[in-house]
Amino acid sequence: MTAWAEPFSYDYAPYTGRPNIEWPNGARVAFWVAPNIEFYEYAPPPSPTREVWYRPEPDILNYSMRDYGNRVGFHRMADVMARHGVRGSVSLNVAVCDHFPAIIERCCELEWELFSHGVYNTRYLYDMTEDQQRQIIRDSRETILRASGQDLDGWLSPAISNLETTQDLLAEEGVKYTLDLFHDDQPMPVKTRSENRLVSVPYMMECNDVPVLNFKNISPRNYLSIITSHFDRLYAEGEESGTVMCLPLHPYLIGQPHRLHILDEALKYITGHDKVWLATGREIAAHFEANYYDSFQSWMEGAA
Amino acid sequence: MSLISDDYFDYPNRGPQMDQGHYGIRYLRDLPKFEWQGGASLMVWVTVHLEHFPMDMPRGPVKPIGAMERPAPSVWDYSSRDYGNRVGIYRLMEVLDANGIRPTAAMNSVLATRYPRLMADVLKRGWEVAAAGTDMGHLHHSGLSEAEEKALVAEAFGTLRDVSGQPVTGWHSPSHSQSAVTPDLVAEAGGQYICDWINDDMPYAFHTRAGDLTQMPLSYDLSDHKILAAQHMPIEDYEYQLGAAFDMMLAESRERGGRILSLSLSPWVIGQPGRVDALNRLLTRFMSADGVATATGAEICRQWTALELEA
């Protein structure tokens, strides 16, 4: 395999002098919540690239920690979001459709969007051929359609395992937007080898409960202000040109008793602002594609 | 030639069940509404880990929180863990006594004979003794042969039953680490409940080759091990998180039926002079709220089983 020194998925685009984005109804921020509904396997096939579990298998501590999200955390989280009128855009390991159909039913009742986060979170794209990656994308499309009647429009690579061709394949397979790039606070055109358009939608690791609570060991006491400070700045900047705020969450973390109130307070705070578009990933990508994809593209060509 | 073989895409377990055979799928919100005996909605279950960390303990393959960290021989690590069994535990006893709480003592069995005075003070208070392996240098994991592991389980239950005179029906795998057969061996040794899996806030039936155990919800993310020793958070963050968990679980228990709030405590961690008062404040608040009761793990397990809520 040749070395891969940069993603080649986008051109440099400074956060100044860009075409202005206007969201529906004069909103400054397109706010969306992305619950990651995941299935980590008890005994996954080994990956040539990455240790799947942290302890010798069976790693029942880490397996069961994640299973909590599906048994307990999901419904709690859904209750809080419904109370605030906020829909989810689910980053879904599509095997959840087969293991936990009741979860998918509730997502559909709540009119949440389903997009793919691979088949299982213990199956990475690493080491796959193009055909094998395509197989995962097509499985996702078929499974989501069967379980919910929805089209597969969005994509977040399982465990963010990207290969050089992943974004090309997504575009070729008709996926509309990707979350794999963390390079911007606004949607962006993605460069691929396909004629089809692919939009990058911001997915914010800075506010994601896994890095915050699991990797960085930040206290829940500080998590709410991380979210609200992030929002405040994007809301202010959005007066000039529309921004995107994403809250990526995991029911196994935010759905725990000592953390659920953070979601409640964060949504109360954000929905308390009048110039917020409560959107889904699909809606943000479609609005950008229809109104700004071309102007951003030609601006970038001029700016380069 | 791909590094990923074709059968990688077969997914033999992909269907309406888990991918291991230990339990069925149950959503907590589907539990019927019930009350604990005496009418309480929230049951506070305190577990005190009594742990012995040998100075020459192996440093892998599973490293428990509290394992020797510094170059061997680490008297620093050893003595600051042993502190819990000398000093911290007596502070905890005072706080628990004052709040009318009899916890489950999840004990490494070597402590039963190593510190007889400690054991006597545990028994005198009517605490439940549960088996938690032999010591922290002998964790349960898949690197052990079944015969080796069976001997550890037998030694832990045997010693603790002999010394305590209690039936000793609870089991905790130290550091929540199991091999694939730990639950089978625990059931074969007469265990009735385990508290190692952290996928629920309520008990559920856990299948083994020797019949069902009850899996009890011992907290991990809310343990002092995790928050104070592994994540290095100040005590204020512990107090905040436990307080938030209590508020949420009490509200949920009133709305949806009986719940358990688990406190997982380690004397070498929470028994420090600058921390134990926070625990006292929390427990005083918890136990003075309406609809809150407390019991040992074995008692809660018996109440749960008698409810026959699982179809």
UniProtKB/TrEMBL annotation, chain A:
InterPro entries: Glyco_hydro/deAcase_b/a-brl. It comes from the Bacteria. GO terms for biological process: carbohydrate metabolic process. This is Polysaccharide deacetylase family protein.
TrEMBL record, chain B:
Belongs to the polysaccharide deacetylase family. GO terms for molecular function: hydrolase activity, acting on carbon-nitrogen (but not peptide) bonds. InterPro entries: Glyco_hydro/deAcase_b/a-brl, NODB_dom. Residues 85-193 form the NodB homology domain. This is Chitooligosaccharide deacetylase. Pfam families: Polysacc_deac_1. GO terms for biological process: carbohydrate metabolic process. Is involved in generating a small heat-stable compound (Nod), an acylated oligomer of N-acetylglucosamine, that stimulates mitosis in various plant protoplasts. SUPFAM superfamilies: Glycoside hydrolase/deacetylase.
